[in-house]
Amino acid sequence: MTASAAVPLAGSPTEPFLRLAGLRKAYPGVVALADFSMDVHPGEVIGLVGENGAGKSTLMKILGGVIAPDRGTIAIDGVPYDALTVGGSMRAGIAFVHQELNLFDNLDVAANIFIGREPRRGGLLQLVDNDKLHSTVKPFLDRLGANFSPSTLVSHLSLAQQQMVEIAKALSFNSRLVILDEPTSSLPIAETEKLLQVIRGLKAEGISVIFISHRLNEIVGVCDRVVVLRDGRKVGTLEGDAINHDAMVKLMVGRDLRVAYAPPNIARGAVALSAHKLRTGTYPHREIDLDLHAGEILGLAGLVGAGRTELARVAFGIDSAHGGHLRLDGQPIRLATSADAVKAGIFLVPEDRKGTGLVLDLTITENISLPNLPAYARNRIVSRDAEAKQAEVSKRELDIRAADLGGRAASLSGGNQQKVVLAKWLAMTPRVMIFDEPTRGIDIGAKSEIYKLMRLLADQGVAVLMISSDMEEVIGVSDRVAVMHEGHITGILDRDQSSEENILRLAVGRPLH
Amino acid sequence: MLKKDLGLLVLIIVVGAVVAIINPRFLSPINIANTANLVGLFGIFAIGQGFVIMTGGIELSSGSVIALLGVIFVDLIANRGVPWPVAAAIVLILGFVIGLVHGLLITRMRLQPFVVTLCGLLIYRGVARFYTQDGTAGFPFGVNFPDLEWLTTGRTDLIALATNGAARSIPIPHSFFIMLVLAAIMWIVLHRSVFGRYLFAVGKNEEAARYSGIRTTRVVIAAYIICATLTALASIFFAMYTRSILPSGHGNFYELYAIAAAVLGGFSLRGGEGSIVGVILGTVLLQELQNLVNLLGIPSSLNFAVMGGVILVGVLADQQFGAYRERRRVAEAARQTAPAESAAAR
Questions:
Q1: Which stretches make up the ABC transporter domain (chain A) (predicted)?
Q2: Which residues of chain B have a Cβ shorter than 8 Å from any chain A Cβ?
Q3: Residue A31 maps to a domain
C-alpha cells in the first residue's frame, strides 16, 4: 500500500468508512473515470448505475486494488491512500461478489469459502480439519438465512444460493463493504428477492453495500442512495424518494428516454412452430404443448430451472427430445442436430453469449459468416471478399460499433457482441427466432435497439420466442407471455393479463385466481 | 506466412549454417537428398497430426499404424501377389477406417482422444507383431517393383531433367515432392476452405460452433480420418524406404515426432491454432537436428535429449518473445496517447 502518512481522524459515527476524492483514470484514448468523489457510510446501501462503459468497472478495479488511479485519494477510516493494493483492499474489509461467480463447483460450500485458508491439523501432514471448517462456516450461512449446509456441493446449488456462498465468503473476511457487481442479472424473480433480503440483512449489521445493477427496479427497492455514472463522470446522486426509474434513466442517458417498447402486434399470423407433448431430458415426465405464431413475440417466463432453456435447446436441435415432437408450419420436423434447425430457418440467440453465441477468438467477420459459410464459398473455398461485404452490411444495419471487423469478437463490448450474434442469423432468412435472455448484462441503449429489432422481425412475419427472467422486459416486449414451471407450460397470458403478479403465480405453479 | 513461421525458418537457417560451418558435409548433395527424403516421410503424417491437434485432440497411434499397415502392405505385395496399386488402396482404406473408428469413439462415445489413441497405439502394435509372428516382414530375394520403387524411393534431378542432362544439381527424392504437393492441398483445405474454417471454429470453441449450426462431430471425425489416411500413405513410403519391417520397433515414437513438429510449428494442444507451413517447418527442424547429431559426432544415444532440449528452448523463447511484444505494444499505445492527454488537459 502506498500510504502517505496522515493524521487519522477520530472515527466518529458520522465518519464515512470510505471516502473517494477526485479519482481519475485514463487509458490510451479514453478517460475511464474523471474527478470522481463519493462517500460510503457504514450500513449504507449505494446503488451504482450507468450504461456499459460509463466507468463502473474502472471504479471497481480501483477499489479492488487491481489498478491505481492517476489522481485522487482513497480514504479508509480517514486514512488517505493514493492507491490500494489487492491485499490492502482485502485487509481494509472490501469484498467483491462478481457477476461471474468464481466458485469451484466440484468442492463443497465450506471448502469454497475457506479455500486457501483451510484450518489444518495433523502437524506435518497438514490435513484439512473438516470439522472445524464446517463449524466455522455454519454461522456465516445462518447470518444470510441460507437453507443449505456447509457440506453441500456447490454444483447442487442454485445460482442465487451460489451467490450467497460468495457473500458468505466476503463475510468470512470480516468485510465492512461488500460490492455486488450485477448479482441479479442471472437470477429469476423469486431468487432475486432472496438476494435483496440478504442485502438488507447486511445493512442491518452495519455493513456497507455497493450494488451495481442494470435492473433499475431492484435499485429502487433496496438502495439508500444512487450514484449515476456517465462517460466516466458522476452525473448525479439520487436519495430516498428521489430514487425512481425515470430519474435514473434520465441521468444515465443524459436525456429523457424510457426503454422504448414498440407497440404490440395484434394481428398475428398462422402457427409457425409448435410443440406437441414435447418432453425434454431435464423433465422427462412433463409434456410441453405450445404454439408459436408467425409475426408475434411470445415471451417465455419462469424461474431459472423451469425448463425454458432446455426447450430452446430441443427446438434448435442441440438436444434431442425425450418424447413428443415439433412441427414447423404444420409439418412434423426432426432436428437431429443444430444444422437441421438452421436449415429449417430456426435460429437461436443463446443465453451464454461468450461461451456459445460467439467464437471469441475468431474475427467479427468470421463469426458473422460462420452459420452460413457455404454461401460465401465457391467450390468449398471461402471468399473473404464476400464475407467482408456481408460484415459491412451487418455493421451498418445493426450499428455494430467496432473499429475493425477483422478484429477478434472478444474485443467488443457486451452489447456489440450480442449484435454480432444477431448479425449471424439476420444475414440469413429466419423463420423462427429464439432469444434466450437476449439483453442480460447489456446497457439500456443497446437493449432498446434489440427490442426494436425483435419487433421488426415479428412485423416481417418471423415467429419470435423470447426467454427472459426480466419481468419488465417480458411484460413490455411480449405480445403474449407463456409461463413455465417445472418442465411444463402453466399458462399463457394475453397482453392485457400479463402482470407481474399473474406471471409470478404461474411461475411458482399456482393457479391464476 | 505468419511471423511465427518466419521465426522458425530463420532458426532452421541459422542452425543449418552453424552445422555447415563445422561440418561441410551437411551441404553435400547426398546428405541434403537423404534429409529431404526423411522430411518428406515424416511430413506426410505430421500434416495429418496437425489436423487432429487443431480440433484440440491428439493422435498417439501413428507409429503403430505405420508398423501395422507397413507389414500388411509388404505381405500383400511380396507374399500374396496382390498388385501394388490394389495393395496401396487397401492400406489407404484401412487407414481411413482406423481414423473413422477413432473419430466415432471420440465423438459418439465421448471418450477422450488421448485414451482412444493410446489404446490404438497398443492394439495396432500388438496386431502387427502377431501378424508376422514377431518376425520381420520383407521382400524375398529378387522381388522388385520398379514403378512403386520409383514413386516412393526414386529421386529426380530437376535441373538435369529440364536441361536434358546438360547441367546437374541435387537429385530430390520423390517422397519430398509428394509431401510438398500434399502440403499445398492441405494448406488450401485448412486455410481457405469451408471445412478448414469449421476446424478453427471447432478447435477454438466447439460449443459455439455447434450453436452456429455446424455439425461438429463430422468435423472432428473428418480430422481423424485425414490424419489416419495420411499416416497410411506414409506407412507405404516407410515400408519401401526400410524394405524390411521388424514390427516390434518399426515406427516407434513416430507419433511423437509429428506432435513435436506441430508444436514447434505453432500448433496449440488446446486446439484452434496452427498452420500447415508451421508443421512442415517443424518437421524440417526436427530432421535437421537428427542430422546434426550425426554430423557433429554427438553420441547418437543423446539424439532424443537434443531434440527435447531444442523443442523446450524453442517453445520457451517463443513464449517469452510473445510476452515481450505484448509489453512493448502496451507501452507504445500508452506513449501515443500521453501527448494527446496533456494537450487535452491544457
A1: 18-256, 270-511
A2: 188, 192-198, 200-201, 204-205, 207-215, 217, 272, 333-334, 336-337, 340-341
A3: yes
Shared domain check, A81 and A206: yes
A138 with A85, same domain? yes
Give pLDDT, residue A27: 78
Q: Are B208 and A355 an interchain contact pair (Cβ–Cβ within 8 Å)?
A: yes
Domain B3-298: CATH class, spelled out: mainly alpha
pTM, 2 dp = 0.81
- At residue B344 the predicted structure's pLDDT band, cuts being 50, 70 and 90, is very low
Kindly tell me if the per-residue pLDDT of A3 is higher than 50. Answer: no
* pLDDT attached to residue B41: 97
Please give the Cα distance from B313 to B105 (Å, whole number). Answer: 36
Residue A124 located in a structural domain: yes
- Are residue A36 and residue A176 in the same domain, yes or no? yes
Which of these three, A253, A285, A313, is where a domain ends?
A253
- In angstroms, the Cα distances linking A312 to A288, A300, A327, A346, A359 are 12, 10, 14, 10, 20
Contact A380 B194 (CB under 8 A): yes
Cβ distance of A373 and B192 shorter than 8 Å: no
Are residues A249 and A283 both part of a single domain?
Answer: no
- Position A444 scores a pLDDT of 76
Q: Is A429 exposed, middle or buried (0-12, 13-18, 19+ CB in 10 A)?
A: exposed
What's the rounded Cα separation, in Å, for the pair A474 and A468?
A: 6
The whole domain housing A25 covers: 18-253
pLDDT digits (tens, 9 = 90+) for A262-317: 666 667 889 999 999 999 988 889 999 999 999 999 999 987 778 999 999 999 99
Q: Say if A293 falls within a structural domain.
A: yes
Residue type, A397: E
Q: Verify that A154 and A234 share a domain, yes or no.
A: yes
Residues from A in contact with B at Cβ < 8 Å: 26-29, 316, 318, 337-339, 341-343, 348, 350, 355-362, 366, 370-371, 373-374, 377, 380-382, 424
Flag whether pLDDT at A10 surpasses 50.
Answer: no
Please tell me the distance in Å from B336's CA to the nearest CA on chain A: 8
- What is the least distance, in Å, from the CA of B48 to any CA of chain A? 20
Q: Which three cell numbers stand for residue A469?
A: 427472467
Total number of domains constituting chain A = 2
Q: Which residue has the cell 435514473?
A: A248
Cell of A224: 439508500
Whether residues A192 and A327 fall in one domain = no
Q: Is residue A378 part of a domain?
A: no
CATH code assigned at A62: 3.40.50.300
Same domain, A216 and A295: no
Q: Are residues A90 and A154 in the same domain?
A: yes
**Domain residue limits, chain B:** 3-298, 299-346
ipTM: 0.88
- The DSSP code for A275 is E
Average pLDDT over residues B79-98: 96
Give the C-alpha separation, B335 to B201, whole Å: 35
- Give kind and range of the element (H or E) at residue B99: helix B84-107
Most confident of A351-365, B220-234, B282-296: B220-234
pLDDT of residue B44: 98
What are residue B242's DSSP bridge partners? none
Give the three-state DSSP class for B271.
coil
